[in-house]
Amino acid sequence: MIESTLILGALGLFLGFGLAFAAKYLEVKEDERITTVEKMLPNYNCGACGTPGCHAFAVEIVSGRAGNISRCKPGKPDKHYNPILQYLKDNPNPDGTPVNIKL
Predict the structure, then answer these.
(1) What is the DSSP secondary structure assignment for residue 13, as one 8-state letter?
(2) Which of 6, 20, 25, 40 is most buried (CB neighbours < 10 A)?
(3) Alpha-carbon torsion, ordered 8, 11, 15, 16, to 10 deg
(4) C-beta separation of 36 from 87 below 8 A
(5) pLDDT digits (tens, 9 = 90+) for 41-76
(6) C-alpha 15, offset from chain centre
(7) Alpha-carbon span 2 to 40, nearest angstrom
(8) How far is residue 30's CA from residue 37's CA, in Å, rounded to a whole number?
(9) CA distance 31 to 49
(10) In 13-88, where do the E strands start and end?
(11) Considering the entire predicted model, what is its pTM?
């Protein structure tokens, strides 16, 4: 009985350290601009832009695949679109190229 408890405890410790190692070294880092752009959107998660929600649309905006930012139907030019365009103008891609997004 004690032997099986020790074996299970050691196995649990080994697997726990393996998970901690994997979480630290295999972490996927997300661009912080995505979070900032998502906060600037209306956050209705309505899907009117053609994406499942505001986070997915923010990913498309930052990657330059969104085309027109005005696809967000609840958004307003002065309140949502212009601040996002200005933010992306001030924070270009890591290689220095501007984000290809239009109003």
Answers:
(1) H
(2) 40
(3) 60
(4) yes
(5) 998 988 888 899 999 999 999 998 888 888 888 888
(6) 29
(7) 58
(8) 13
(9) 21
(10) none
(11) 0.74
